[in-house]
Automatic annotation (TrEMBL):
Alphabetized SUPFAM superfamilies for the sequence: beta-lactamase/transpeptidase-like
Entry-linked Gene3D superfamilies: DD-peptidase/beta-lactamase superfamily
InterPro entries in alphabetical order: Beta-lactam-related, Beta-lactam/transpept-like, Diverse_Enzym_Activities
Domain Beta-lactamase-related: 46-430
Protein name: Beta-lactamase family protein
Organism phylogeny: Bacteria, Pseudomonadati, Pseudomonadota, Alphaproteobacteria, Caulobacterales
Transmembrane segments: none
Species: Caulobacter hibisci
Length: 463
């Protein structure tokens, strides 16, 4: 029996799932926009952008949250939780944040890094010996089946944390990738445990040799199993005890209990004419019960207020309200670009993920690097992005997105529920209006975002 199955009952009691949280608490202190350098009048363009999507029928509703200097400048709701609802979207609506789970998993891994449990340049096989014999397709046989040959070396942990290990994903039936098709058809993401998932991956072809390119992958899900093995706890229990409870993220979890489902935002897709229709997904996507294999790559649900507390912790350098989650130098490591200049980040976590055959570079691909489970704006000017250098960001395939800008001491969170979002333009447009309204920019210099050549020391790694 997996750690997770053993822990479900205990975690339910630990979370107090039978008690609803009365009212909507403010995620952080509030401030008028002008008090922290924003124009109230100009921020109306941001709200108009979101409301227009509701009016046009592109989304049922959404929530946005903007904060600077540790204070919420704006938290707005738009439309409804579901099209059939009478009541407006609640500020504490619960959203499937999908791949925004990855930065949370990255923080979980870095908590263990601070404790000296692993190092960036360790081979992944030190923690997942099932990967001792990973193989890559070197051709096809007479019947068209791939001929598999051993990879040249095991991936490192740094490569696992940065989507450069060579793994495929299998989140969609990608016609351009035999490895992704193999993952998809084997049901890697639908496994009945994280151990079963890893066993499947071990028998399937790699997308590439380790360290050759950036490729969006199942890496964060593999990290979930490593967290379980290093901590001796199920992934949801570890995250609850080490991240969510200390940060008071009361509604963030891998499933929504019955007393909270009234706040769960309905998820939609679009038909051929662009009209919203209820999304049809497999049973493995059912968020009303504990998942058999908690996905470190895409399994969490959260609220704008909860994720704001996570973002502020990162912006603060690892602590919030006197509670330290990570050491400051470890947060700096997370925000550091680990990619060489020749590698290209090809998605923002939302664009092209569910329909890879239609994948196009997202608006800010130029000048984008990748840190620990999060994208890093190394050279924002290269793509015309208005953010400060060192901004980290990611999104989810159900339409959520965020960015954290240390140079301007701000973060933004956007939450909708439409598969694939409404295109990469929404991220770009919301950034445009946020920075258009920012009248007092650049409060501090961003940290060096150059790629490190060898192991970066932190408190535990030095011991």
């Amino acid at each position: 029996m997996s750690l997770w199955r053993k822990s479900v009952g205990a975690l339910a009691g630990f979370l107090g799932l039978t008690a609803a949280h009365p009212g909507v608490a403010s995620a952080l202190p509030r401030a008028k926009p002008e008090a922290v350098g924003f124009s109230s009048e100009k921020l109306k363009r941001l709200d108009e952008t979101m409301q227009r999507l509701v009016d046009q029928g592109q989304i049922a509703g959404g929530v946005t949250l903007l904060a600077r200097h540790g204070k919420v400048v704006s938290q707005q709701t738009f439309g409804k939780r579901a099209l059939e609802d009478v009541q407006p979207m609640p500020a504490d609506a619960i959203f499937r944040i999908r791949s925004e789970t990855k930065p949370v998993t990255g923080v979980a891994m870095l908590i263990l890094y601070d404790e000296g449990r692993w190092k960036l340049d360790d081979p992944i096989t030190k923690y997942v010996p099932e990967f001792e014999s990973l193989r890559i397709a070197s051709g096809v046989d007479a019947s068209g089946r791939p001929i598999l040959s051993p990879i040249s070396r095991p991936p490192t942990m740094r490569e696992l944390m940065t989507h450069t290990a060579g793994f495929a994903y299998g989140i969609a039936d990608d016609p351009g990738s035999a490895a992704d098709q193999a993952y998809y058809r084997a049901g890697v993401l639908q496994s009945d445990s994280l151990f079963s998932m890893v066993r499947k991956i071990a028998d399937l072809p790699m997308y590439s040799e380790p360290g050759k390119l950036w490729r969006y992958s199942v890496a964060a899900d593999i990290q979930g199993l490593i967290i379980e093995r290093l901590s001796g706890q199920a992934l949801p229990v570890f995250m609850q005890q080490r991240i969510f409870k200390p940060l008071k993220m009361r509604d963030t979890a891998f499933w929504v209990p019955a007393d909270k489902t009234a706040r769960l935002a309905a998820i939609y897709d679009a038909d051929a004419a662009g009209k919203l229709i209820p999304a049809v997904e497999g049973g493995w996507r059912d968020v009303t019960k504990p998942p058999p294999a908690p996905s470190g790559g895409g399994g969490l649900l959260s609220t704008a207020g909860d994720f704001a507390r996570f973002a502020q912790m990162i912006l603060n350098g690892g602590d919030l309200d006197g509670v330290r989650i990570l050491e400051p130098e470890t947060v700096a490591l997370m925000r550091l670009n680990h990619l060489p200049p020749s590698f290209q980040v090809t998605t923002d976590g939302t664009s092209g993920v569910l329909k890879p055959g239609q994948q196009k570079a997202f608006p800010f691909a130029l000048g984008m690097g990748y840190g620990i489970d999060v994208a890093v704006a190394v050279d924002p000017a290269a793509s015309g992005a208005p953010v400060g250098p060192g901004t980290i960001s990611w999104g989810g395939s159900a339409g959520t997105w965020f960015w954290i800008d240390p140079a301007n001491d701000l973060f933004f969170i956007g939450m909708i529920q439409r598969l694939g979002g409404v295109g990469p333009g929404l991220d770009a447009e919301t950034r445009k209006w946020v920075y258009h309204a920012l009248e007092k920019p650049l409060v501090r210099q961003a940290a060096n975002t150059a790629a490190p050549m060898r192991e970066t020391s932190t408190r535990s790694a030095r011991k």
